[in-house]
Amino acid sequence: MTDIHQESTFDVVIIGAGPVGENVADRAVQGGLSAAIVERELVGGECSYWACMPTKALLRDAAAIRAARALPAAGQAVIGELDPAAVLARRDRFTSNWDDSGQVDWLDQAGITLVRGHGRITGTRTVTVTHPDGATTSVRARHAVVIATGSSAHLPPVPGLADVAPWTSREAAAVKEVPQRLAIIGGGVVGSEMATAFSALGSRVTLVSQTRLLPGVEPFASEHVATALRTAGVSLHLGVDATGARRDDSGTVHLTLSDGTAVEADEVLVATGRTPNTKDLGLDHLGLTPGDWLAVDDALAVLDDTGRPIDGGWLYAAGDVTKRALLTHHGKYQARALGDALAARARGENPDLGTWGRHAVTADESAVTQVIFTDPEVAAVGLSAEAAIAAGRKVRVVDHDLGAVAGAALHADDYRGQARMVIDDNSNTLIGFTAVGPDVSELLHAATVAITGEVPLDRLWHAVPAYPTISEIWLRLLETDGRDR
């Protein structure tokens, strides 16, 4: 049943039908509960239509060509240049041309009720939905309401910027025509990935960032990506701000930078962080500030300003709105734990919230995983060296040149990359891992298992990597650690 217009009651009501909301609902239903999910846009959310899937589709063709050209015989077989129209057409297939009927069908098959419209909390366990036709419906929850509304692009207060109709990640992911000149404000993940994508698609890209590129990862990874972007023709302006913007009568955008540089572009993409989608959810009725991130406890119950669960604990949140880890896969991890926990409570059971417990979200604190699909890729899990030291951990850092590994040398001529282990000296376990280089994303899960499993390094010695693969980097890192101690 979808698009209900009559008052209804369910065990769980979720606001937001992105991957996080879908997973909460699915796990709750699998646990024997009834669930309704409220969505004002497309079922599948940001990840399916404006983030993970379309952006990776924009990046993949160019990555395949780079991989072929890194080998002499395969490179000779690559004839011609990248066809932007074909790239965009493949992107459109992955977004189903922004038609969510397939995901709506999945909700039906999973036994989840979809309520189309904008949901606001109007009372205890009550969500009032304003439908596209203007009608309203009250949907009530017996057990819990879950906020899974995600986040949106943050627009910085640069004079004139709002008036030039800037792109956000949404417009970049859904682009219909590749601009000749693209300016990007922000050097984080979105800015760096889109600089990689659009330079490969033929744009002359200028990227402006207050900080170094990718400030959230190890500096060596940032340097590798910056070098590759410059080689690809991207103009990087790091350590400066955009101080003004205007669009002239010809449509050209003029940016002024804090160092006096003038930048001209056909479009400007703003990639300066995210803001939570909590402005119009009725949170003020609960004593919360609309537009703020939602503080949650270990059970993902939303907390009031005294640090206590709202009204005894019927309101929960998962995904970006909690600001725990703004990554789809971590939001889905939270959602699985939360959906299962809600079902357990409904059966009268106590959720397992101990460290690494069945319903805990411990990985959000100690093993956040991320792949940045730039050229080269960056893969990271756990703590960087800087973050570990700032947290008061006694650590040692082990680095190794990825290009010196036989499997990497076979993988691509002139393979360039680096890997780092961050090791806790007291426990002799891995607490952080970062790699940068072509196709390093496939190294990440081994590091994730080692960190979450708290595997001692002397046990890792017995995890023998196959030869010749890039995974041999694990042996080289362990050997380096042994020599350095």
Automatic annotation (TrEMBL):
NAD(+) binds at G186, G187, G188, V189, V190, G191, S192, E193, G273. Belongs to the class-I pyridine nucleotide-disulfide oxidoreductase family. Keywords: FAD, Flavoprotein, NAD, Nucleotide-binding. Disulfide bonds join C47-C52. Transmembrane segments: none annotated. It comes from the Bacteria. This is Dihydrolipoamide dehydrogenase. Residues 10-331 form the FAD/NAD(P)-binding domain.
